[in-house]
Write a structure and sequence with these properties.
26% helix, Alpha-Beta Plaits, RRM_dom, 6 helices, RBM45_RRM3, RNA binding, alpha+beta, RBM45 protein
């Protein structure tokens, strides 16, 4: 498990702890906080669990937080929990829950239309999960282009993009005339590609060298 600290992150200790110990997960709407705790207590000591609810109806939105005592426990939960939970590190609390919820749905919850696959459908208790209706304005695909001013190393770039589940291949190329780096990344779903672009565009790798990550046409209908 590899955790990269964003340059935009604050240096205050509390903010750092908040970023590295709190995870954000997608859950069935019938889950209680106790259900959530029961599913994630095996990965470490939980400080608290909370479920995001509709302010008007009090109904669960199918999203929740789990905060651990140690960053290593949160990292283990992300790495080892069922992929259907779509676990990611949560944004700091100073970002509004509505904004975070929108980012999460936009970047992590969209599914490929073919087969009408929904999260958790491998397990009967999850099959009632509602499909997200949000739309992403940018033309997206499952394939990404990565451009760097410095040469890219195949193994290291693969390891970086493999932090997002669903990586199918990473093909690194090098321009012998300019010494710059170029790579094509492909994921199994558009959701994974969207999330990888959201997290890694502008990421400094190696330090001082910002990666440019954009979508590449993959032959599918971009309107999907």
């Amino acid at each position: 498990v590899f955790i990269a600290q964003s340059r935009a992150s604050g240096s205050h200790r509390d903010v750092e702890d908040e970023e590295l110990t709190r995870i954000f997960v997608m859950i069935p709407k019938f889950y209680t906080e106790e259900d959530l705790r029961e599913k994630f207590k095996m990965y470490g000591d939980i400080e608290y669990c909370s479920i995001i609810k509709n302010k008007t109806t009090g109904e669960s939105k199918g999203l929740g937080y789990v905060r651990y005592l140690k960053p290593s426990q949160a990292a283990r939960a992300i790495e080892e929990c069922d992929r259907g939970y779509r676990a990611i590190l949560a944004e700091p609390k100073n970002k509004s829950s509505e904004s975070l919820e929108h980012d999460y749905y936009s970047n992590n919850a969209r599914q490929e239309p073919r087969g009408n696959t929904l999260p958790f459908c491998g397990q009967p208790e999850f099959c009632s999960f509602e499909k997200n209706e949000s739309r992403i304005q940018e033309s997206v695909s499952k394939r990404l282009s990565v451009v760097s001013r410095l040469p890219l190393i195949q193994e290291q770039l693969f390891a970086l993009f493999d932090l997002v589940p669903g990586l199918e291949y990473c093909d690194v190329q090098r321009d012998p005339h300019t010494n710059s780096g170029y790579a094509v990344i492909q994921y199994s779903t558009a959701a994974s590609a969207i999330y990888a672009k959201y997290k890694l565009h502008g990421f400094e790798y190696p330090p001082g060298n910002r990666l440019t990550v954009i979508f590449l046409e993959d032959g599918n209908d971009s309107s999907e």
